[in-house]
TrEMBL record:
SUPFAM superfamilies: Homeodomain-like. InterPro entries: AraC-type_N, Homeodomain-like_sf, HTH_AraC, Tscrpt_reg_AraC-type_HTH. Keywords: DNA-binding, Transcription, Transcription regulation. This is AraC family transcriptional regulator.
Length: 347
């Protein structure tokens, strides 16, 4: 099971397979990533993020290309992203398309969010992982998504590169720069604090003659229906989100979670069991992650952290934390202060 149940649309696997055809067979690719071949051509199927991570790692290893994410964009078809590509092509402006991509980003992946904001006549599009996704996303996945956005805009605005201001990437500088330079044709900053694309504001707000509100409406409805089905079936992710929302209130019992999800405790237990999970497993993962983040904030007393995480006393919190990490909360905090690299045992 992927961490916190995060997933990617199954058809996103297809262009990756196509990119790797010169190196090995589709069967070998899917076997190494532990992905079921039956699901990859169905946009209603989802691939756990753990498997996608294995797929990207295999892709770089077999190709020897640390820019493999950019190569994948050559093989992406409109249907690989459900109705999102069609809604983009029908948009009345680039801003409208960007806002729609942000609104429906879960269609592609539940682990990342797109944010759009204006700053000094620039429009900044940034990617950020959701709060409950512990692992860093694959640099190749981010490369592919960001490059695909530029290529998609290029289909309706061929002069897009004239209006790109800069690109920021968190990934390290690749061994060969030419692929990124060809893709963006603007200043690129590697090892940046965030992943973002900066456009000229006037370009983003330009009206597009290709805009078609009727087609937008049809494709948006398809996307809305898709997300409704996804959220109903993704009980692990839904439980996780509700728990995070409820935690500040202090009442995040299984009964409270079930109430928020409008189902009975018995149904919640059954649905989670079907996904090889449980309320306690999800709660422990959230507590473990939150505990580590809180302990890095040295001004927070350990007793307050225990209370925030719903433990009845500091001793209970300490026992659980030591079980998760092999260290007491105080030891962990001291090691952080000394800049010691610590394995916190997420898996």
């Amino acid at each position: 099971m992927a961490e916190y149940g995060h997933t990617t649309i199954a058809t996103w696997v297809l262009p990756i397979i196509e990119t790797l055809k010169p190196y090995c067979s589709a069967q070998e690719i899917l076997r190494c990533a532990e992905i079921d071949p039956k699901c990859i051509e169905d946009a209603n199927q989802r691939i756990p993020l753990d498997n996608m991570k294995k797929l990207w790692e295999f892709a770089e290893a077999i190709s020897g290309d640390d820019c493999i994410g950019l190569q994948v964009t050559k093989y992406v078809k409109h249907t690989n992203l459900h109705a999102l590509s069609y809604a983009h092509l029908s948009s009345s402006s680039i801003r409208e398309s960007l806002l729609r991509s942000a609104r429906f980003s879960e269609v592609v992946t539940t682990a990342m969010r797109i944010n759009i904001h204006d700053e000094k006549k620039q429009v900044i599009v940034s990617w950020k992982k959701v709060d409950d996704f512990i692992y860093e996303p694959s640099i190749h996945a981010i490369d592919a998504f960001m490059a695909l956005l530029i290529k998609s805009i290029g289909k309706i605005c061929p002069d897009v590169h004239q209006h790109l201001i800069s690109i920021n990437l968190q990934r390290p500088r690749p061994s060969v720069l030419k692929y990124h330079q060809r893709m963006y044709r603007c200043p690129i900053n590697f090892s940046a604090d965030s992943c973002e694309i900066r456009f000229k504001q006037e370009f983003v707000d330009r009206k597009l003659a290709s805009g078609n509100n009727e087609l937008v409406s049809i494709n948006e409805q398809a996307l809305i229906s898709y997300l409704e089905r996804l959220r109903k079936s993704d009980i692990v992710s839904m439980t996780n989100r509700v728990l995070i929302d409820l935690m500040p209130s202090g009442d995040f019992s299984q009964e409270a979670v079930a109430r928020e999800l409008a189902i009975s405790c018995r149904s919640l237990h059954r649905k989670l069991k079907e996904k090889n999970s449980s309320y306690q497993i999800i709660l422990d993962k959230i507590r473990k992650y939150q505990a580590v983040q809180y302990l890095k904030q040295h001004e927070l007393p350990i007793t307050l952290i225990a209370y925030k995480l719903g433990f009845c006393d500091t001793s209970s919190f300490s026992r659980s934390f030591k079980k998760w990490t092999g260290q007491s909360p105080r030891e962990f905090r001291n090691n952080c202060s000394e800049n010691v690299s610590i394995e916190i045992g997420i898996d």
